[in-house]
Amino acid sequence: MQRRRVLRPDAPLLRRAPGEVQVGTDPRWSVRLAGLDPDDEAWLRELASPSARRGAGAEQATTSGRRAALVRLLDEAHLLVPARRKRPDSPAPGKGEADLAVLSALRADGAGHRVLAARSRATVAVVGLGRLGAGLAVHLATAGVGTLVLGDPGAVLTTDVGVGAYRLRDVGSPRATAVQRLVGEVAPGVVTAVVPETGAGTVGYGAPPPDVVVVVEHGAADPGRVARLVGEGVAHLSVVVREADVVVGPFVRPGVDPCLTCVELHRADVDPCWPQLARQLRGRTLPAGEESLLAASAAAAALGQVLAALDGLVPRAATACIEIPAPDAVPRLRETSRHPRCGCGELARTPPDGAPLPMSGRRRGAD
Ligand SMILES: [Zn+2]
Prior knowledge:
Layout: E1 5-7, E2 13-17, E3 20-23, E4 31-33, H1 38-48, H2 65-76, E5 80-82, H3 97-105, H4 112-120, E6 123-127, H5 131-142, E7 147-151, H6 175-186, E8 191-194, E9 212-218, H7 227-232, E10 235-241, E11 245-252, H8 260-270, H9 274-283, H10 292-310, E12 320-325, E13 332-335
Parallel strand pairs: 6-7, 6-9, 7-8, 9-10
Antiparallel strand pairs: 1-5, 2-3, 3-4, 10-11, 11-12, 12-13
Bound molecules: zinc ion.
Residues 258-259, 261-262, 338-339, 342, 344 line the site of zinc ion.
């Protein structure tokens, strides 16, 4: 038996003119229905009202040719969803109810609770917890990611406070434990762990490996730090805070996407001196602040890439670096591709398009 369906509760039903309505406003799915008689309009209003979740659904209309055509139109626009929406089970604040409408709208089956359920089973590591990384960690908890692994060798500075997560009371505390406490205050159901991170060696994480590791660095990315992640097939996102912009990407699914070394080799093709410049940038020991706008904007951009991957989509940063510049933070994309001299292509066992994200326990290069 077919499930009873109603108009998606978060898509507004708007009257445009006599006999003409519009369902939804997002151009990706909104539809305009014209030539309606008063009975049709009343039927649509009933289908959109909260009481529709108890009464008859769209299927009641399928015996009538006219209504059947309306149902077909709404169906094609994915505007019909099961009458009873499952409540999410998520460690996010309010069990993720605030995110449910949008997540449901993005799925043909309207089952946003499944996205939240998948996020609650995921683990993300954030290494480098300045304003940007701390903000990202709290955003991930807010979005319902179940486990966070946190790494940073430093203590909270007064310049870390504000944008992101830190408060004045955190100044002087180890950054990782301060973020752990802040996540606990926002989403107590999120599991957190602190890993030792020297800031100079390879990126560490607990076992089993996270689904995604985010590495926030300053000046220039260091492919050597993520070599272990590439070898073990752990997806990772590079975020680099530069003089007046932040680069979010590449998001590397090892063996599937261009890696950090590919990006560095391409850059050295354009500027043969780049490797020595990058070495100097990585070696700078000045305390590096993270400007307010850039930290806030880049944390949001990084959040989008990580959640896309966890939600089963291909992150845009898998094939492009997202450059976010001051003063307006309007992102621009710099496309990336595999470099012929990088060996990361040998890890490839699946085609690049639509390939599933390597997740914990299904690691490429380790099986
Ligand atoms: Zn590569």
